[in-house]
């Protein structure tokens, strides 16, 4: 959600402009979101910003809206640094390790989380322009992710909804019993209108993807279009 906030660093707004963060969360909920993500992916060792991020998301969520605590998988990050962030996000319903670009870093992050918490873990992977991660095809990546015992995993950010659908079909074929997430970028490397995301969401669900959303560049209008398309 950080790209939709008015200034950088976005995570600082949890403390300096909580009204803006809360209002954006509410806008996503009112647009039909059933899961919202905390404004904490870049908070790293800022435990106060993480704790505030969860409080704001929880306050904005309705009783049946899931709150996911967002954190990165950064190569070279110490387990202690990760665990401080995990503890600060403990009031979330699950942890979402976002826009993963290194499977080794993801494994280290999952291991660090499980050393201090029993909260469910999900992740999204950011594939390159060729639909690969570290040179590996999406189906092979899906097999690796399925071995980590994650609650769900899939596609995040990347190169837009068309690529997301191709990648997710390959992941679905590789791991047909997994709970899969797809939340493509809507306005960083390429622009996708709300209407385009709505059409994509229907195709994604028809292809067997269970958790549908959007990443960088998306707005409440994109989520409303997705929600309305899936209700029809």
Overview of this protein structure:
The chain is of the alpha/beta class and 232 residues long. It has a domain at 1-119: TIM Barrel. Helix content is 44%, strand content 17%. The protein has nine helices and nine strands. The strands form two sheets. Strands 1-2-3-4-7-8-9 form a seven-stranded parallel sheet. A two-stranded antiparallel ribbon has the order 5-6. β1, α3 (47-60) and β2 form a beta-alpha-beta unit. 46% of the residues are buried. The model has no long low-confidence stretch (mean pLDDT 94).
How many helices in DSSP terms? 9
- What is the CATH homologous superfamily assignment of the domain at 1-119? Homocysteine-binding-like domain
Low-confidence segments = none
Radius of gyration: 16 Å
Q: What is the rounded distance between the termini?
A: 26 Å
Which class best fits the helix and strand makeup? alpha/beta
Mean of all residue-level pLDDT scores = 94
């Amino acid at each position: 959600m950080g790209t939709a906030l008015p200034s950088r660093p976005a995570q600082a707004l949890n403390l300096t402009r909580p009204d803006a963060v809360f209002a954006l969360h509410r806008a996503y909920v009112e647009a039909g979101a059933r899961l919202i993500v905390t404004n904490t992916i870049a908070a790293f060792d800022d435990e106060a910003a993480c704790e505030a991020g969860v409080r704001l998301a929880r306050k904005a969520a309705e009783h049946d809206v899931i709150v996911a605590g967002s954190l990165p998988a950064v190569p070279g990050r110490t387990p202690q640094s990760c665990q401080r962030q995990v503890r600060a996000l403990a009031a979330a319903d699950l942890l979402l390790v976002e826009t993963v670009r290194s499977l080794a870093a993801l494994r280290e992050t999952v291991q660090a989380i499980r050393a201090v918490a029993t909260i469910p873990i999900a992740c999204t992977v950011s594939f390159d322009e060729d639909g690969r991660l570290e040179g590996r095809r999406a189906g092979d990546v899906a097999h690796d992710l399925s071995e980590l015992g994650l609650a769900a995993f899939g596609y995040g950010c990347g190169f837009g909804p068309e690529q997301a659908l191709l990648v997710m079909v390959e992941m679905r074929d590789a791991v047909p019993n997994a709970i899969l997430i797809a939340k493509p970028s809507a306005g960083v490397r390429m622009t996708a209108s709300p209407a385009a995301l709505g059409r994509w969401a229907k195709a994604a669900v028809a292809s067997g993807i269970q958790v549908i959303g959007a990443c960088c560049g998306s707005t409440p209008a994109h989520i409303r279009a997705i929600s309305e398309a899936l209700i029809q």
